[in-house]
Amino acid sequence: MDEVVIGKLVHGGQGLGTLPDGRKVFVWNALPGETVRVRLIKQKRSYAEAIAEAIVVASPERIEPLEANYLATSPWQMMTFEAENRYKADIVKELYTQAKLDISPFIETTVLENATGNGKITLSPSAFAYPPRASHYRNKMEYSFWGDEDGLHLALHQRGSHGKQIVSGSALALPAVDVAARVVLAELTRLKVRAGDLKTLVVRCDQYGAAVAALFVKPSKFPRLKLPSQAKPSSQKDSSVSEGGGGLRGLRVYHSNPKSPASVRTKLIYELGDCGLADSLLGKVFHYDVDSFFQVNVPVYEQALETIRTYCQGDPVDMYAGVGTIGLSVAKKHVTLVELDPATAAMARLNASRTDPDARVVEASTEKALEYITAEQPVIFDPPRAGLHASVVKRCLEAKPPQIIYLSCNPATQARDLALLQAEYAVKHFTIFNFFPRTPHIETLVVLEFR
User: Fold this and answer.
1) Do domains 2-62 and 83-132+296-450 have the same CATH topology?
2) Where are the beta strands (DSSP E) in 106-242?
3) CATH of domain 83-132+296-450
4) CATH fold for domain 2-62
5) How many CA atoms lie within 13 A of 107 on its CB side?
6) How confident is the model at residue 225 (pLDDT cuts 50, 70, 90)?
7) Averaged over 356-384, what is the pLDDT?
8) Cα(first)–Cα(last) distance of the chain, in Å?
9) What's the whole-number average pLDDT of the chain?
């Protein structure tokens, strides 16, 4: 194995070093300042990817991971939480510097709420928001399966290989998620279902401990599972909730095209119980189901919503609206919600019918609903990792909405978009949110105002 010295962490989560042949190598399980021996998992002409198999010189920030399989889902378990937050801030600073958006005064300066008009962003300690705990925060997990002579097991894919690792749960998941996963596993075991007939199990729970699940299977017909009789409604709170006592209240079993490696919903085979959940955000109740998009770290998401509500100057248009959590949380009198997925749009309509603002739900992609971006209303974006489509950026520069509020799960694509938008917009607020502790994922929120 080659020995490599790690210089820094890069966007994506790997440590960056140089191989003896001069190629750059991106290394999992490595921290800045460490000397590691690596196993190459991908090789290209100009670079390689690897996993550190042995730590020759360890960083003082290295700690013992919570799980043996941590590289699969949360590869930053091996560093202190303080180091994680600092490295995330450093990565964001570098990405924005590359996009010619200066955020270099991070931490060393006081907050400057007003931009200088040249695209400069000034950060301070208050511009980084993170949860009080770094484990047991996720309200959603996706597990695979593994079968052997001992029976059927939950499993996760191993990074850098085509293999799987048997797990009993996740250190990142809320307890109710893993309780429900084990309930489904027990039913599959009772029915003697083969691992080869299964794809994945998606489980999500609300903040009260009730859980729902979606099982993706390869056959078009599947034996009927049973739900536990002790399942409780999500509105019922008691001492058992903290231990996942809300129960598995709903299950959908989907036939998923065996030719697709992803867990696609090809056909609903059957549904048991109630697959809907509800959570409170800023005092409003939002409904969603097992298939809906909903943020996985609710306490940190509430912080982001509070910040958006503070800075939003007027009733907005909410693009990529999901079930409506942002637009309905910040609007006072009316809001337009644009959402592509029909099932999610239906949930947005349900939520709109039960909240104060007058809401219109537009079932369309953001790229096909550009006419709703106007000079009269602020516009909110919470796009997928690819960021804003070029047509959306072009429309913003032409229509000139008074505010653009942009929550991103990929600061690299957000920085790319802001580099274009700064021609007409000044940055008024910027916050980094650690939605996903122990992982390299970063969320950033920027508030832009038309110059």
Assistant:
1) no
2) 128-129, 140-148, 151-157, 164-167, 198-205, 211-217
3) 3.40.50.150
4) OB fold (Dihydrolipoamide Acetyltransferase, E2P) (2.40.50)
5) 11
6) very high
7) 96
8) 55
9) 90
